[in-house]
From TrEMBL:
Keywords linked to the UniProt accession: Cell membrane, Membrane, Transmembrane, Transmembrane helix
Highest taxon listed in the record's lineage: Bacteria
Name this protein carries in UniProt: ACT domain protein
Membrane topology annotation: Multi-pass membrane protein
Organism: Megasphaera elsdenii CAG:570
Taxonomic lineage of the native organism: Bacteria, Bacillati, Bacillota, Negativicutes, Veillonellales
UniProt family annotation: Belongs to the MgtC/SapB family.
GO cellular component: plasma membrane
The keyword Chloroplast is assigned to this record: no
Domain MgtC/SapB/SrpB/YhiD N-terminal, first and last residues per copy: 11-142
Classification via InterPro entries: MgtC/SapB/SrpB/YhiD_fam, MgtC_SapB_SrpB_YhiD_N
Subcellular localization, as worded in the UniProt entry: Cell membrane
Broad class of the protein's primary localization: membrane
């Protein structure tokens, strides 16, 4: 069995390691920050400790081990998925898709907690350092690669606010081999017109004038702008 003293030490280590990752996420103003990551890591560690101790209790009490120490710990991996989903859906009010990195970080932090609870402290520390490296250094590399292989575009539209119109727009974007990075709506769901901003990326140069012309030719689109994301404001174009 894991002694009380050893269990406390492991929980404290889990608190520190989870806190390091959570601090970085908090500094980036992410939806899941210091407290969330720390709680996930400590909770995962506790689940692993309890799993091991229950299995050992069965062994010493009954002389055989009919308990699988992996069962409780295994549920952490699936259970943390609900928290991760919450970080992705946290911005649904303004219809923006964000939080995938934070969700992956929470999943990784839960794994760190399990590793600490199992007593593999060196592995846990190395894993924490690597995750921290990914979150702090790789973000710059990611931005450079994104700028090298993809062009960023900004699309602003005022269009009819209905499912059919949204599907037409989605098909249009897909047919032009563009991918949505963020999607923001500035109006209520029951408004007659949707005022939206979309950040897109494309692997090749897009003819901005042609894209605007095609957008305005679509029924239901009242206004449209489309330009490279260089911080400038594109010229507003009006449809019918």
């Amino acid at each position: 069995m894991i002694s009380t003293e050893d269990s406390i030490i492991r929980l404290i280590i889990a608190l520190i390691l989870g806190g390091l990752i959570g601090y970085e996420r908090q500094a980036q103003s992410k939806s899941a920050g210091l407290r969330t990551h720390t709680l996930v890591c400590v909770g995962s560690c506790l689940c692993m400790i309890i799993s091991i101790n229950i299995a050992m209790d069965y062994y010493f009490t009954f002389g055989y081990n009919n308990s699988d120490p992996e069962r409780i710990a295994a549920q952490v991996v699936s259970g943390v998925g609900f928290i991760g989903a919450g970080t992705i859906l946290a911005n649904q009010k303004d219809r923006s898709v964000r939080g995938l990195t934070t969700a992956a970080g929470l999943w990784a932090v839960s794994a760190i907690g399990l590793v600490v609870g199992a007593g593999y402290l060196t592995i846990a520390c190395v894993a924490t350092a690597l995750i921290f490296l990914v979150l702090t250094v790789f973000v710059r590399l990611d931005a450079r690669l994104e700028g090298r292989f993809h062009k960023k575009y900004v699309m602003h539209l005022v269009m009819k606010n209905n499912i059919g119109q949204a599907r037409k727009l989605s098909t249009f974007i897909h047919d032009h081999h563009m991918h949505i990075k963020t999607f923001h709506s500035h109006n209520d769901d029951d408004a007659p017109l949707a005022d939206i901003d979309i950040e897109l990326k494309a692997a090749h140069h897009m003819d901005e004038t042609e894209i605007i012309s095609q957008l305005l030719a679509m029924k239901g689109i009242k206004q449209a702008t489309f330009h490279v994301d260089d911080g400038s404001q594109g010229q507003e174009n009006y449809g019918h």
